[in-house]
User: Fold this.
Amino acid sequence: MEKFPQLKVKEFMHKEFTSIPLGMTLRRVIEILSKSEMPGLPVVDNKRNLQGIITKRKIINLLLPRHLIRPSSWIGSLEDMFPSGALYGNRGRLLLAEDVMDTRVRTVKEDTPLFEAAVSMEKENIEFLPVMRGEKIVGIITQGDIMRALFKIG
Assistant:
């Protein structure tokens, strides 16, 4: 275990990941997240600068109350599942990633000790952290990555 404090985030982070453009519809975001093994994904502008994150937990919290109104609607399309308009904003416009993303995002640098990332995730009850090099996102570190590191050195 004495090796753990020496490990860096960049050694275990996901270097290949999907990012969500600000203007992507919530329907498409749900589709991408449902197929992803990540607990959430970064939201980026057209220059690929980090603007926020969208997590599976956030989507579930956003949509689940509306689903409870019609429990049988789990079968079928997203429109059938959320007939009360969960995919739409107040003015009938389709909700976009930028409408539902969290903008207060905790990040780490790629040279951050893995131990610090693990402590931060535990203290703040978050499942992943975007990894930054300057202003650019270069990876994602997850709780699963921390577990993999612990197993590797264990």
